[in-house]
Structure formats: structure tokens, C-alpha cells
Fold:
Amino acid sequence: MSICPICGSEVAPRSANKAFPFCTARCKSIDLGKWLNEEYRVPATPDEAGEGDESEDAPAVASEGDFPGKPDMRH
Structure:
């Protein structure tokens, strides 16, 4: 048998338990609440965390002067 990650109780097999891998729907809801409250976090790599955005390889941001002949559409 498996163990519930929330309360530590034994968990019935998936075929007999709609809340698997949790023991009950209550534990399943508690786990969802922890994700929604950001108590759990998936670690990010440095590239995903925004580090390295200032590198020389990053493309330059275009400005209005980069598009000759394009009219200014702001009113």
C-alpha cells in the first residue's frame, strides 16, 4: 500500500480510490491549496529565473526609429 503525502495514512489502490495518491478527497484538496498558496515551488534554472537577460547575445529592442516610413499610429 501507498502512504498519503499529506497525512501519512495508508492509501487504497487507484482502482478503489478516486483521490489516489491521497487517502481522501480532503487530503487531495489540502495538497491543491498548498500549490495555490505557493507553499510548493518548482525550482527554476538560472535562464528561466531571468538571470542572464543582460547578455551580449540578447537581441536589441527595436525603437520607433528602426522602422523608416512607418507612420506613427498613436493618437
